[in-house]
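Lab notebook, design round three. We kept the backbone fixed and only want residue identities now. Task for the bench partner: fill in a sequence for the structure below.
Input structure tokens:
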């Protein structure tokens, strides 16, 4: 730098004093940066999103860990670890939750910066993808997934002079133990009292459980039919029950319809509100529509109608009748009804 400055031929209009002043202006920011650098070391933190069992039967819809304390200026990189898609989202205070397909609106570039003034969201992301958020300002921020209503966490961004309670190693251990706990809870649910159907010829269609820590809520979800191959006699009726909150399942025989939400035209409603179909031939197509409980009530709002949680099918004739949950078949949620004379 010095050599170069010396080589510059004095230009008319800029005298020696002017050059010195300019050089000083350029030196000052560097000096200031060196002064404040020790407090501004921007730490890189890591966390994970989602977990699932190897067979994909049980998924933990969770930020792991779901509560992290960092300093202003630090960044967190989230790695997605599930085939069930999630988002990393920070909305503005009071912002209406948008649809995951729309973004908040739109999607943030990676790395994103969040200080509470503009929302940040990823699109739906799955195993192996990562996303980084930089937090320049102190504040307590809610981390959420736009896909799942009971999946959130909180990020505490503290001023540089505040002590941090935990290290990255602590969060790594916490993420692993929370993941293990959620998935083993799921195993217990799948084979415990939640797995007992209403009818002796019943099949449980998945399960879900909402759980929480002081950092936020997580959801455990199971995507299997409890009796993947149920055997009945001609004329009998099988009943599918969805015992869990939040997650719709379908019982779909034959061709998958475009609109999964509504039942196929052949489906009737029993006096107790359960949907009911008759499948006479293995070439019949029948679709239950969404089998799901109503969302949780909220005080001060009109009560929600009952959700349709049961689907029944009567099989007058023998045969082998494979079916799927049209939402979760790719995760292995499929079954079969074997009807003998
Ligand atoms: Cu399903």
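Proposed sequence:
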């Amino acid at each position: 730098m010095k050599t170069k400055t010396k080589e510059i031929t004095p230009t008319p209009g800029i005298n020696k004093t002017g050059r010195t002043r300019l050089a000083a202006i350029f030196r000052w920011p560097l000096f200031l940066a060196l002064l404040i650098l020790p407090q501004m070391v921007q730490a890189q933190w890591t966390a994970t999103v989602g977990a699932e069992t190897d067979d994909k039967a049980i998924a933990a819809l969770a930020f792991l860990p779901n509560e992290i304390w960092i300093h202003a200026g630090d960044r967190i990189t989230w790695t997605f670890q599930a085939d069930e898609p999630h988002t990393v989202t920070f909305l503005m205070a009071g912002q209406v939750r948008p649809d995951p397909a729309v973004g908040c609106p739109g999607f943030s570039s990676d790395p994103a910066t969040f200080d509470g003034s503009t929302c940040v969201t990823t699109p739906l992301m799955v195993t192996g993808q990562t996303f980084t958020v930089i937090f320049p300002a102190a504040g307590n921020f809610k981390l959420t997934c736009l896909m799942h209503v009971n999946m959130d966490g909180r990020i505490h961004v503290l001023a540089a002079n505040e002590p941090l309670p935990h290290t990255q190693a602590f969060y790594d251990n916490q993420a692993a133990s929370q993941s293990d706990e959620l998935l083993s809870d799921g195993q217990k649910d799948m084979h415990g009292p939640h797995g007992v159907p209403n009818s002796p010829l019943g099949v449980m269609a998945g399960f879900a459980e909402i759980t929480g820590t002081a950092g936020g809520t997580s959801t455990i979800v199971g995507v299997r039919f409890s009796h993947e191959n149920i055997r009945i006699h001609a004329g009998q009726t099988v009943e599918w029950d969805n015992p869990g909150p939040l997650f719709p399942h379908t019982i779909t025989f034959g061709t998958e319809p475009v609109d999964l939400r509504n039942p196929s035209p052949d489906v009737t409603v029993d006096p107790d509100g359960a949907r009911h179909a008759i499948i006479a031939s293995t070439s019949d197509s029948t679709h239950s529509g969404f089998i799901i409980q109503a969302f949780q009530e909220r005080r001060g709002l009109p009560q929600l109608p009952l959700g349709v949680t049961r689907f029944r099918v009567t099989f007058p004739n023998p045969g082998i009748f494979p079916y799927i949950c049209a939402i979760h078949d790719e995760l292995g949620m499929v079954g079969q009804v074997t009807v003998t004379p």
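Keep this in mind before ordering anything: Residues 206, 223, 249, 325, 327-328, 333 surround copper (II) ion (CB under 6 Å).
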